[in-house]
Amino acid sequence: MQKLLTKLQKYTLNDAIKLEETDRQFIALKKLIENNKSKEETLALVIANSIICYQLSGTWENYWEEFSSYFLDKEITFDNIIWELSDFMIQSKNNKRFIDTKINRLKKLEFFLRDFSGKWEYFYSHMLELRDILANIMNQKKDAKTIVFAVKMFGYIARNIYVFIPYPKEIFIPIDSRLTNLFEKYKEDYTDINKFYLDLSIVLDIALLHLDAIVWINYEELMSENE
Predict the structure, then answer these.
(1) Which helix (H) or strand (E) holds 180?
(2) Is 145 a catalytic residue?
(3) Residues 15, 31, 39, 176: which is the catalytic one?
(4) I need a labelling partner for 75 at 20 to 30 A (CA). Which of 108, 189, 193, 203 fits?
């Protein structure tokens, strides 16, 4: 881990925030919320979309841009989010796999999205509670990729409505192929990938979800640099 730590020590939380704002996913969500009058409904829509954001048939960036463009002029209500997302997925170029399974996942969220309307600013201030509720509803572990990714994307869009709040340090990073490759390259004596990134986060004093942006955007450089 030390070699990777040395390469990342120049970054701060402010650097991570600036990098996040260059993320195509962040830009897509910023555009969506700026052009949509239904702010709270859009927040709920983003959480629901995050829950079905796996096994994509295109890149994550292309998928979220497609999602943003599709819903830019849609009239979203808490009652039609599940139906609209299901319809979108059927037409999507970047999310064609396991559609029936993903629609069933969406249905699990239906009552949550409706019952917690009006509480999204509260959840932005209590992202750990949001993570726990989502994990319970979806019957998944708190560090499951789609659960922590949902909190990340919620934070992305919520900061364009409310005063910025950093991600809690207790929420894990969504493990993907890039993070796995970095782990394999730099793990040394580590056997647990979550422990590896948690320790990296602690030493750098940057929450894991913010560290995610630094690693993601600098991935090619981190993998290609000489030992």
Answers:
(1) helix 177-186
(2) yes
(3) 176
(4) 108
